[in-house]
Design goal:
Layout (H helix, E strand, L loop, with lengths): L26 E3 L7 H10 L4 H20 L9 E2 L11 E9 L3 E10 H4 L1 E10 L9 H17 L13 E7 L3 E5 L2 E4 L16 H11 L4 E7 L1 H12 L3 E7 L3 E8 L15 E5 L13 H9 L7 H6 L1 H18 L6 E3 L10 H8 L7 H11 L5 H36 L9 E6 L1 H5 L1 H15 L1 H6 E5 L3 H12 L8
Amino acid sequence: MSVAAISTAVGSFHLSRSPRRMPRYRMAVRSSAVSVTPILNNLQKECATPLPILRHVADAMAADMRAGLAADGGSDLKMILSYVDTLPSGNEKGLFYALDLGGTNFRVLRVQLGGKEERVIATEFEQMSIPQELMFGTSEQLFDFIASGLAKFAQMEAGKFNLPPGRLREIGFTFSFPVKQTSIDSGILMKWTKGFAVSGTAGRDVVACLNEAMQRLGLEMRVSALVNDTVGTLAGARYWDDDVMVAVILGTGTNACYVERTDAIPKLQGQDSSSGRTIINTEWGAFSDGLPLTEYDREMDAASINPGEQIFEKTISGMYLGEIARRVLLKMAEAGDLFGISVPEKLSTPFILGTPDLCAMQQDNSDDLQVVGSILSNVAEIESSLSARKIVVEVCDTIVKRGGRLAGAGIVGILQKMEQDSKGLIFGKRTVVAMDGGLYEHYPQYRRYLQDAVTELLGTEISKNVVIGHTKDGSGIGAALLAASNSMYEHDF
């Protein structure tokens, strides 16, 4: 996932908004007005994603993937080795845990696996908030708190959960911060993001930090797999469907991973895997080649904490779609006559309009677009006419259509690269792309635009074999499954 300051992608996108008191309206008055129609027409023209643009993006994505596999730093895409070369088969048996640290909450999960016949016998999870002071504390304080939460959760183990005698409980650790992975169960923290500033962890192995904290508590557990959330999603989906080859997260942030042949990774330099394949974490949010960008994208990027970086993410992910739309509406209010003679003051506040607001407005089927008017009023203290509301919906649709179609082109780029290396691997049979993240799950128009782009690029016949489907919370159970398939104990499955 992106190193930009973004919250956890999965489950971070909600449509509900708490009711607010009716606002008082504060406006700045413009000196002159022009029609907003030319601004809207220009936006639609610059955001357009006809087939040639989609094809260029797909081809460039495939080329960047190859360059990133050839050498570290070879392209915008990091193409990080996951060291996952044993994927869940469905034969896994036993009790395994997962720990997911990706933002201001962490989650613990346990699953009892029963092999091919029984599959998932039972599962339980609990979510805990991390106190703000620990986000700025020491490494020991943070990991001691996490280990303590894990210990309390483990103590409640009962019923169908059963650990064979003489075994340690094994954990799959999903850690969604920038890590340089060095093996399946170790990785060096490059830097904290998402508002964390914990001292004493950067440059250290995060698995060792957690294992040491568990030892200090006398907790008999060990980490047997360190996984990126996208890799966990692929593993979780693959457990149920052997045809899963790609996983994509589209939530607050975005990322994609896929199954790659080890002999197609020049930078591996002789390292081999028992299966001849591994999962590659693309970090595709950094892709930038040939994207149709507007003045609003460039202004937002320049004002961001990472200008010039994560351009694909800033064009397609949930954190940014609402902000792009806000910047367009502000321009229409300042230069045009969208909201009458006044410019709503709150509309100048960055990120005040969220992607869930866009989604809710696009679901409004009422004659007077009442939901649109209510959101504009509650969020930005805007009084709007029906004609203004219609334009607002057009703006939302334009931004979301571009985002969904570009995400679809990115997926085709990954599939294309895999097919070029092994003819018939992808396009000759059923292939599943596992999707997770709130943006994909909750925004029907985005989903449709993504699927449309895939169908246009691949053609009707081939696209029939490519199944793009939502997998709810794949990364949580996926981490536990990777702990199982990389267990320190002899596999009796």
